[in-house]
Design a protein that fits this description.
By secondary structure, the protein is of the alpha+beta class. The protein has three helices and nine strands. It has one domain: Mog1/PsbP, alpha/beta/alpha sandwich (Protein Transport Mog1p, Chain A), CATH 3.40.1000.10.
Length: 173
């Protein structure tokens, strides 16, 4: 993997997060703590960093994929579908944008919006938008297009593990 491909993957994350998190800085307390299980001991590259109105944690596989979890109080955002629509409208402007799908799914018992796309720099993204216990989440997976089929399911599985600490709204599957 080249340094440029890591930068490209990070750019997709930052651009799409800025789009969804464009409400400015939060005046509310930070979202609740949550648990998540990234695969294979991926090293954490972002820890509780404020990006737009979200708090971001991210992990990076040495071979290029990135998995990020962005959270903020749900009262500061629209519905998961509204957040996905906003991200979609603005991301369509990226060079070479090609939508794979945008659909409603259930992950870990939660209604979730799943959005997958490609960009001109041979990168793919798969994002999941959902709410739990008053917290709005966007999980983001970025990877090379050639790895999408193999890694999109891994990103889905990692998203299933996101659980607000002390919340029983959606019991583990």
């Amino acid at each position: 993997m080249t340094r440029l491909s890591v930068i490209g993957a990070g750019a997709i994350l930052v651009i799409s997060l800025a789009i969804v998190g464009c409400g400015g800085s939060s005046s509310s307390p930070d979202p609740a703590a949550y648990d998540v299980e990234p695969f294979n001991g991926w090293p954490q590259i972002t820890n509780e960093e404020k990006v737009g109105g979200y708090v971001e944690n991210a992990w990076h596989d040495p071979e290029s994929p990135i998995f990020a979890v962005d959270s903020r109080p749900a009262e500061e955002t629209g519905s998961p579908m509204a957040n996905a629509d906003l991200a979609l409208v603005q991301t369509r402007e990226l060079p070479g944008y090609k939508e794979r799908w945008l659909k409603k799914v259930k992950l870990a018992g939660r209604p979730t919006i799943e959005w997958a796309f490609d960009t001109a720099d041979e990168r793919s993204g798969i994002d999941f938008f959902f709410e739990e216990c008053g917290v709005s989440f966007v999980t983001r997976g970025t990877m090379g297009q050639i790895a999408f089929a193999a890694l999109s399911q891994s990103m889905r599985e990692m998203t299933r593990t996101v659980k607000v600490k002390g919340c029983d709204e959606y019991p583990a599957p």
